[in-house]
Amino acid sequence: MLFPESPVAGNLCALVLSTCIALSLLRLFEETARRGIFDQKLNRKLVHITIGLAFMLCWPLFSSGSGGAYIAALVPGVNIVKVLLIGLGIVKDEATVKSMSRFGDYRELVKGPLYYASTITFCCMIYWRTSPIAIAAICNLCAGDGFADIIGRRFGKKKLPYNTDKSFAGSIAMAISGFMSSVGFMYYYSMFGFVERSIGMVVGFLTVSVASALVESHPVSTKFDDNLTVPLVSVFIGTLVFS
Predict the structure, then answer these.
(1) Rounded to whole angstroms, what are the CA distances from 96 to 83, 117, 180, 243?
(2) Rounded to an integer, what distance in angstroms lies between the CA atom of residue 205 and that of residue 185?
(3) Which residues contact 52 (CB under 8 A, 6 or more apart)?
(4) DSSP string covering 63-105, please?
(5) Neighbours of 31 (CB within 10 A)
(6) Which of 22, 94, 170, 210 shows the greatest Cβ crowding within 10 Å of its Cβ?
(7) Phi, psi (deg, nearest 5) at residue 167
(8) pLDDT class for 123, splitting at 50, 70, 90?
(9) CB of 135 within 8 A of CB of 242?
(10) From CA 161, how far away is CA 183, in angstroms rounded?
């Protein structure tokens, strides 16, 4: 953490730094959306992948225990307020709507983007950086679901028999990317002593990622939004395999 001798000052500095990183990334993708540099769907998924994972990279900057977790949670917590205000039509922000929505409708923000920000906030507050459940839930939501869409759209010619809107390529990409990013964060956090690397944890991450990919590919995730179903399943299966 920053300034070990003064946890309050360290947490506040970490909060400012993490917020600046998050806002910079959001601003970057708002600008790419405004200029049409990427296709809108690709731009939205790049936001989806990078924001949550970049925030997790900042967790070691905060102090241990609930104090650091609650202060860190303010970063995505503020975004909950933002997407609510925009999604309810109280605040107008076309750049944000374009970078986060599927079809350019501001009302979409109170669904997928709200579930996304809420998942990261609650995983941070409840599980924090010592829990593989938080790692698995956020990595499968961000990297897994993000790459499932990107790869699926480009290489997903062979569709799943139980859901023609999803492909084998997308589901495989989700399982692999969710798993690999989870293992990557296991190694990253082990450098700080937050978790201990183990084969059991790796197997647990694989189990959660496969389960998340199966749920994401099921029609129920289209009905209820995979930003909701994927984290719920990740936390549920993670609780079972990591207990």
Answers:
(1) 9, 14, 29, 39
(2) 11
(3) 76, 116, 120, 138, 141, 142
(4) PSHHHHHHHHTHHHHHHHHHHHHHHTTSS--HHHHHHH-SSS-
(5) 12
(6) 170
(7) -125, 160
(8) very high
(9) no
(10) 30
